[in-house]
Specification:
The chain has four helices and nine strands, in the order H-H-E-E-H-H-E-E-E-E-E-E-E. It is about 25% helix and about 40% strand. By secondary structure, the protein is of the alpha+beta class. The termini are far apart.
Length: about 170
């Protein structure tokens, strides 16, 4: 009887010590994304950089689109581009007037354990007010925090959104 109990426990111990990628061993304790939105006076365009933890971003893309995700895999980069664009189009909207701005997706890159996603608007006039709706990763974590920085003519205004809040406005 003792050998019967010992064998399953041995298999459990062996399975527990199989090497696992680092991102699965040490999850980060904070769930945060940042969006940097800057008006480029030379081009008259908004430049947007969204930064998210790569493991969280892969998890939400897999959950929402029901596909295998790997933002680090060069062979999957084209497929990942489509998912990244679609996800952020749905979860980040910016208005400087009546209608939401069309944000042109430029691509993404991995920066250590984070993913930077780049967008720019078409040409727009200088604005006095900007409205942002940011729900990035809110469908994955109920303790998600979004930090939004808006820069216009060298003036930077920052605000933190805690789940479930998604909307903010800045006036310059």
């Amino acid at each position: 009887m003792g050998a019967f109990i010992f064998k399953p426990l041995l298999y459990c111990y062996i399975l527990m010590y199989i090497p696992v990628p680092v991102k699965h061993l040490a999850p980060h304790p904070i769930h945060v994304s940042t969006s940097n939105i800057e008006y480029n006076n030379k081009d008259n365009k908004l430049e947007v950089i969204c930064t998210l933890f790569t493991d969280d971003f892969e998890a939400i893309l897999a959950k929402q689109f029901h596909v295998k995700t790997d933002l680090n895999n060069e062979d999957m980069h084209k497929d990942m581009d489509a998912l990244v664009k679609k996800y952020l189009d749905e979860h980040l909207q910016i208005k400087t007037g009546v209608a939401p701005l069309k944000l042109n997706y430029l691509g993404f890159e991995i920066n250590r354990e984070a993913t930077d996603v780049y967008f720019e608007s078409d040409k727009i006039p200088v604005f006095k007010k900007i409205d942002i709706n940011d729900s990035i990763l809110y469908d994955l974590f109920d303790d998600q925090m979004s930090i939004v920085h808006v820069i216009l003519n060298g003036v930077r205004k920052s605000e933190k959104l805690n789940y479930p809040a998604t909307k903010l406005s800045q006036e310059f």
